[in-house]
Amino acid sequence: MRNLLKIKWLALFVVCSASAQQEKGIIGASNWLNNWTEFKPAKTEYNETNQILYGKITTNTTLYKKNTYLLQGPVYVTNNAVLTIEAGTVIKGDYETSGALVIAKGSQLVANGTETDPIVFTSNRPSKKEGDWGGIVILGDAPINKFGGTSSINFELDPTQTIYGGTNPQSTSGVIRFLRVEFAGKKIKGYKDYNAISLAGVGNKTVIENVMCSFAAGNAFEILGGDLSLKNMVTLRSKGDDIRITQGAQCKIDNSLTVRHSYYSSSTRARCMNVSSYDKKEEADFSKNLTNVVATNCTLVNSTTDLAADLASGLVKECIFVADNTSFSLKKSVISGFSPAVILDDDIKPEAGGLKKIKFEEMYFNNCKGNIFVENTTNNEDLEDYYGNSAFYNLYENTPNAEMFIDSNKATGTPDFRVKIGKITASK
């Protein structure tokens, strides 16, 4: 009996230790980045293409792992068709024709990869670079807050196939699991640049889990309206924003990782999260939802190897931007290595109750040159006092990434960005 009790106490200690280790930032009993992610995609070789996709897909279609596909120009899935992609399938976007995949409103993408057999969208060039091809565009009929309730994506695409928005927040655009998008974000002269994945008016019956966007020239994820949940998202070295959310999106983000680098950010102040309620105030219908984002257990990290030098050179920017007329909550998360951690729109007036809808709770602010500022101000004492109140349980530390995370600099294999238990304990 005594030995049995010892075993039970030991098991309880292991469970509690694992829980404490993952109190803030991404969580998991093991490193859930293993197997399906790729942190050095330029060195990964894939089979030569043997099937070409072009034009419109108007009937239910399946892509098979045994083939390697080429997206030649924009490929539209339309007419309420379902495109199913088998686990382990590789699809390449054509550089010359700006290959892209567009899931029109009413159609679905069922890309159900597995941890050991992810689906991969990548470049068809021998030497891959960010912006080699377009990206994935998914359009739904969930609400947006633009006047008229609908809008259109403008990437030099067929305007009749790129309409999004509607009245059905519970609609589905399919299932996306264990999928990687590499080197997307083609710049189209005279038009809006592609994102790796655009989610426009996507409804909450759509499943989006374990998706990685790496080396995007535009934004990694752009969310335009809709009502959706994202879980286990990963972004790596995007030149644009890692996650941009606007047009009244109702969005939940859970257990997700963004890894930026000082030398990969564009000159347009790209951030890990860029949250607003509209692109142009005059286009917003204020009778409809404003953007509401709730993010939990996220790790937002600048992976530069010489943070002090990059700070001195002005290469490091803010991690998060929150615009006026927006609700934003970030909880149990880590922000490490930015200048500063957060900037709030200068239309937000803290003294007039402007912080009621902007919450930072149980946070770990690490190695940031300043924490939370209002735009175009240098004195943030009031904000530091407000969010530093013990009721928010926020922690502040200056620890190198190599010491803070279990293994953020793994030379081979998959890094582990879970926070070491000792760092949380020491901060308390």
From TrEMBL:
Keywords: Signal. It comes from Flavobacterium humi. InterPro entries: Pectin_lyase_fold/virulence. This is T9SS C-terminal target domain-containing protein. Residues 1-20 form the signal peptide. The keyword Signal applies.
